[in-house]
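Q: What structure does this chain adopt?
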Amino acid sequence: MTIESKYEIIIYWSEADQSFIAEVPELAGCTADGKSYAEALKNAETVISEWLETAKELGRTIPKPKGKLMFA
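A:
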């Protein structure tokens, strides 16, 4: 399992956007969307990888995944 797959992803339906939104709370500004839940998840995984790659290139600190952040 890679570090990318250990970040919490919150997925919900957005009526305003007419799509599923996937947010990664531990990575500032890291969000994705999709027409289906599965597509939003897939897109989030891609965006997480890109976020981490960019942070490494810029020499920024990469937060360690904390797992579940809150209870629903």
